[in-house]
Amino acid sequence: MDPDVALREIRSMVAAALDDGARIDIDELAILVESLDNWISRGGFLPKSWRQPVDNPRADSLLSSPQAAPVALVLAGGVAVLAAALTGRGDGQAPR
Asked: Hey, which of 23, 39, 50, 73 would disulfide with 44, CB 3.0 to 4.6 Å?
């Protein structure tokens, strides 16, 4: 697992969907997110770009808004629900 490659692919898919309105393969996106989550949860190092400042106007505006905390919780919950749906487990944990 190369977390830098996974994150680059995740970001590319998200940008294609948000910026270009492209249809993306949600299964592929979910696998990438789950793989990266498993990597980090098991003690793997963070992707390089997460270890240095990044200029991301979309994220900056979201994080500076009063709704930032609720949005972060919704995103975290969405990832847990997605993992549960993909694994068929109700606990949101990926298979080991």
From this structure: 39
User: Measured between alpha carbons, how far is residue 75 from residues 1, 2, 79, 82 in Å?
Assistant: 23, 23, 6, 10
Kindly state the tokens that stand for 61. Answer: 């505006």
- Contact between residue 32 and residue 12 where contact means Cβ atoms under 8 Å apart: no
Q: Where are the alpha helices (DSSP H) in 1-96?
A: 3-20, 26-41, 57-63, 68-87
Where in the chain are the domains? 3-87
Q: What are phi and psi of 47, to 5 degrees?
A: -60, 150
